[in-house]
Amino acid sequence: MKREKNRIHAFDVLRGISILLMLMDNSQKFWLQPSSMWQVSILFMLLNVMGANGFTFIAGMGFGYSWRIYEQKKLDPHEIYQKSFARTFVLIMLAILYNCFMALAWGLSWDAIWYWNVLQCIAFSRLFATLIMKFSRKIRFVIAIGIIVLTPVLLLWMEPRYKVEVGAAIVYYIFFHPFNATVSICFGFLFYVPFFIIGSLLGESTRDIETMQAKEQQKGKLTPVSLKVLRLWVCIGVALFATGILSGLNLSSHEYLPLIPGMNTFPGLHITALPQFLITNSYAWCLYCVGFEIMLSLVLLYFIDLNGKSKRYWPLAYYGRYSLTIYILYYFFLLLPPCSFFAGSLDWATVWIAEILFFIGNWVLVYALDRKWQGKASLEYQLELLGGLLYEKLQGRSKASPAKQELMRETLVTLEKEAEESLIQGKSTNYLDKLLEMHTLALKLNEKEKAAQIKARFEAFKANR
């Protein structure tokens, strides 16, 4: 895998770790005998710190990082929101289609279309994050922590009432449906949106650090300002991690997912309660997990992208780059031979042989996607394409005043000159950035032919880079 400019490879590695843990959990549920289900519960309890919640956190990091790039390019705020809403709408449609497939594949009831699976959590978290981007970073952080703290209060009111009272039932269906999942682990919007918001804040800071490092031309050595930002995030991560553990040391038997019954299927084991910070979706668990995710992100960011010395990340980066494709396709793989032959038939030891073969098969798939088709056959590429098309439609409907149109045409000419200068000077990244700005302006001016020509130049140059 080539080390691309303007791509944070730590994001790919984090996604790779997360998707591997999710694959391991769901495939073991499918393959294990009922007597070996204790393994799933124990592994889930210990490793869920970077499972679906981590996947949501990393999605937020990518969102914040991209948003900050748009701001640094001085794009019109209205245009940034259009970009975000277009991609969010496509992701929401995918989440609904995914839920429909799951309902049909597992014989669930019609209301499974509104199950809070991880894709739906990410899609609506992205929508919510877009709506609050007008607030400062401090306020958004407070919103995230407020949701973590207040959600248990809402649950305390809702749990005894949602089956008998209309108001509680509405809250349940909007934010938490289903409360306890049997076929696939579902989450609940309010449990996971804080992960996305805090991830987006770290993503914005990541872009700021990257920009400062490039400005000072520092490689492998952090500038004083970058170091200050990193130290702040280290403090935040440690504080949240420690707060989650210390506030969650009390034992509880109240679970939102049945881990204790699963662990008790191990012969001779009888657990009646767990520390609160290990109980999925509790407030202490949220703080503990998001703190761990911040610290892990900072470590990988430093050694892979800022320091630039570690190049042993690429196997995981393949998984991370095409994580969404893998997540969608692996359900098909489980339902088809040879994976379907082992459903409910493997014990706690033999399942690892199937896991290793399964992981290797997925890795070969993503390797082919990256090498042979340059990722164009992936779901990520197709979603980006659909989001871009929708954004172009939105841009085509936006009309500027004659005076503004004239100013935009002058800017287009200036950008053309700057792009050519960048090309002559060998500044390929700057050249591509100028082409993107030109493409956006051409769309705003409704000059579709010129926009198509600029897009063709961009893709041709990127392909030959």
Describe the structure in your own words.
The protein has 465 residues and is an all-alpha fold. It folds into two domains: 9-372, no CATH class; 399-463, no CATH class. It contains 18 helices and two strands. It has helices at residues 9-31, 38-47, 52-72, 77-106, 118-131, 137-158, 166-175, 189-216, 224-247, 259-263, 283-306, 314-321, 323-335, 351-371, 379-397, 402-424, 428-444, 448-463; strands spanning 251-252, 274-275.
Content of β-strand: under 5%
- In which order are the strands of the major sheet placed? 1-2
User: C-alpha Rg, in Å?
Assistant: 23 Å
User: What overall geometry do the principal axes of the alpha carbons give?
Assistant: globular
Helices and strands, in N-to-C order?
Answer: HHHHHHHHHEHEHHHHHHHH
Structural class: mainly alpha
Uncertain runs with pLDDT below 50, 5 residues or more? 181-185
User: How many strands, what sense, and barrel or not for the largest sheet?
Assistant: 2 strands, antiparallel
Question: How widely separated are the two ends?
Answer: 14 Å
Topology (elements, then pairings):
Layout: H1 9-31, H2 38-47, H3 52-72, H4 77-106, H5 118-131, H6 137-158, H7 166-175, H8 189-216, H9 224-247, E1 251-252, H10 259-263, E2 274-275, H11 283-306, H12 314-321, H13 323-335, H14 351-371, H15 379-397, H16 402-424, H17 428-444, H18 448-463
Antiparallel strand pairs: 1-2
Helix pairs in contact: 1-2, 1-3, 1-11, 1-12, 1-13, 3-5, 3-8, 4-5, 4-15, 5-8, 6-8, 8-9, 8-11, 9-11, 16-17, 17-18
